[in-house]
Amino acid sequence: MLLLQCRNIKKEFGIHEVLRSVTFNLEEGERTGLVGKNGAGKTTLANILAGSLQLDSGELLWHSKNVQIGYLRQSIYYTPDLLHELYRGQNGLAEAGDFLHMTSELGTTKVHKWEDERFASLSGGEKTKLALAQVWTSKPNLLILDEPTNHLDLQGVQWLIDELKNYPGTILAISHDRYFLDQTVSRIMEIEQGMIQEYSGNYTFYRNQKRKNYEAQLHAYEVQEKYKEKLESEIRQLKNWSDKAHRESTRKGAKNGSKMGSKEYFRVKAKKKDKQVKSTIKRLEKLREEGKQRPIQEPKVRFAFREAGIHGKRVLEASLIGKGFGNRILFEKSSFYVQRGERAGIFGPNGCGKTTLVKAILGQETVEGSLFVSPSVQIGYISQDVSDLEGEEKALDLFPITNRKEQGKIRTMLANLGLNEVLLNKPLKSLSMGERTKLKLARLLIDDYELLILDEPTNHLDLFTREQLEEALNEYEGTILLITHDRYMMEKICDKLLVFEDQKIKRVESGLVDYLAEREDNKQDGSGKAGDGMPDGSMTQEETKMLLENRITIVLSKLSGLEAGTPEYQVLDSEFKQLIARRNKG
Questions:
Q1: Residue 120 has what pLDDT?
Q2: Cβ pair 90, 137 in contact under 8 A
Q3: pTM for the complete prediction?
Q4: Eight-state DSSP code of residue 41
Q5: Least confident interval from 23-37, 159-173, 481-495
Q6: Separation CA 381–CA 365 (nearest Å)
């Protein structure tokens, strides 16, 4: 049954038209993914549907009087004070038990014993989990989820996927997480140029279908352009023939005096050619006015990190460090090191202390023990929080511009990141979360950093930007410390890990897939611990399975776009077969 009809929804902010004419239907029980590039208007549309933003024109036609909307907003919305209020609002309600059960399922335990200080020091993942629990216990029949997997660890993502599979209501999920969308939705709506394009199927199907549509539209456009060239050639030839016929009629008339036969023949011939010219010109003008436009190519984002300087081999060294808040110990007696040029992923569940460790490296937090950071290493840092970009100032105000030449370089760099002149002149507070994240990344590009510390750098970024960022990081020659919920990105970038386990941080000499596989082997033969700092200590098998499925989806998507028999196809095909064998082996 029909739940909602959206008809010609329009929304502008000043002179900036975000939604031009958005039209679609939502059926009861339908699972829909909403995608689009950063700033396309996804969150704007979600706010309109949830009733927290007024549309400028158009209609929302609800076909049910009892629509209970559960709206998970982007993480920046959930301040510690708001989350504290949400939690206190559960006290005394029948749903309080459900709320605590949900937080426990998500890996956030004993919330009822938390003190005010605990709410003030929540990680991004813990904030998302509390917000999810609050939304879930409101028992909505329409879920609107805006980037729900941002900040979530593997346990949280898998819990959400499993719950959504059993959820009886309607789902509209805004996400750039390919694995999450492939597992949860059966239709994709893409906002492009302020309008909706719909695709039946999951995210992988949408990507493949969009590529095929683009290729077909480009071919049709190219055929049309060749036909235009042919018409233009015909017009030139007909005009030449017409001019010649007119000259012949004049010449023959002058030569023959009063004899009109030859002159009339060439005059009729000239008029016929004139008529053909007009007809062909009309066809050409119609094509120019009503013909196919060149299809829009997906945006290309270009990152270019500057070459890292060469200093000493030792970048970071920790000896018996520890940190806690009140009675809560994050980590203790932990020793590890990071050397120049290494790429280490910082891995662990939400709330284990990953961001706290980063702040300690940056000198923003104190820890017990000894933490050495090379004073000769220049550090570039991007945090998971973009709430500091909320003011009235413009994007260019964030960059040190000393002259016109420097301004030109920065404008070019921002354009390469997909931040055009219109966006540069908007106040920061009106930019999307993805556009603000791009600005933070842009500030990393203007200096020569030897160490990049990236805390959830892909949060809010669209797929195109994520892929380009991965390529740039692979080419970067400096040292990288990476925190990310994007397991594919960690697998691709990092060959070392700093793992939070049993309230300790330990260095692992492998990437994520090998680490999880080894830990599973140790668990099965009893030679090692399965614990990863998660409450139930039983997520290893699920983590490994999720990572394998994620990689299988990615490889299969890439294979579908390659020609069989090419070297790249053969390499990916071999990897695909190995991944399937590992999955079947269990």
A1: 67
A2: yes
A3: 0.63
A4: S
A5: 481-495
A6: 15
* Per-residue pLDDT tens over the stretch 493-538: 898 999 998 899 999 998 888 887 777 766 666 554 433 333 334 4
**Sign of torsion, CA 148 150 154 156?**
negative
User: Measuring CA to CA, which residue among 328, 343, 414 is closest to residue 126?
Assistant: 328
Q: How far apart are CA 120 and CA 130, in angstroms?
A: 13
CA-CA-CA-CA torsion sign (558, 562, 564, 570): negative
Place of tokens 């709410």: 119
Averaged pLDDT, 24-50: 92
Cβ neighbours of 333 (radius 10 Å): 13
Q: Is the pLDDT of residue 13 over 70?
A: yes
| Both tokens assigned to 467 | 């892929």
Closest CA to 534 of 524, 522, 525, 542: 542
Helix (H, G, I), strand (E, B) or coil at 11: strand
Helix runs in 51-115, H state only: 80-90, 96-105
DSSP one-letter code for 224: H
User: In sequence order, what are the residues at sequence separation of 6 or more whose Cβ sits closer than 8 angstroms to the Cβ of residue 77?
Assistant: none
Most confident of 114-118, 401-405, 506-510: 506-510
Distance CA 190, CA 169 (A): 22
Residue with the larger pLDDT of the pair 13 and 238:
13
How far is 138 from 153, CA to CA, in rounded Å?
23
Residue 28: count of CB within 10 angstroms of its CB: 16
Residues comprising the chain, all counted: 586
Q: Of 75-84, 225-234, 428-437, where does mean pLDDT reach its minimum?
A: 75-84
- Chain-centroid distance of CA 70 in Å reads 23
- The string of pLDDT tens digits covering residues 436-481 is 888 888 887 777 788 999 988 887 777 777 777 888 788 888 899 9
Are 308 and 450 contacting, i.e. CB atoms less than 8 angstroms apart? yes
Helices (H), 318-462: 354-361, 404-416, 421-424, 433-444
User: How many CB atoms are closer than 10 A to CB 167?
Assistant: 17
Instruction: Give Cα separations from 518 to 157, 523, 530, 544 (angstroms).
Output: 22, 9, 10, 10
With cut-offs at 50, 70 and 90, classify the pLDDT of residue 410: confident
Residue 476: alpha-carbon gap to chain centroid: 21
Query: Using an 8 Å Cβ cutoff, are 314 and 365 in contact?
Result: no
Which DSSP symbol is given to 76? G
Residue 33 carries which side chain, given as an amino acid letter? G
First to last CA, the chain: 40
Give every strand in the sheet of 16-27, ordered side by side.
16-27, 2-13, 57-62
To the nearest whole percent, how much of the chain has pLDDT over 70? 79
Beta strand 16-27 pairing with 2-13 = antiparallel
Nearest to 330 by CA among 311, 298, 355, 303: 355
Contact present, 507 and 488 (Cβ < 8 Å):
no
Answer yes or no: is pLDDT of 195 > 70. yes
SS (H, E, C) 346-388: EECCCCCCHHHHHHHHCCCCCCEEEEEECCCCCEEEECCCCCC
Neighbours of 556 (CB within 10 A): 15
Quick check: 151 and 101 in contact, CB under 8 A? no
Judge whether 478 and 335 are in contact, CB under 8 Å: no
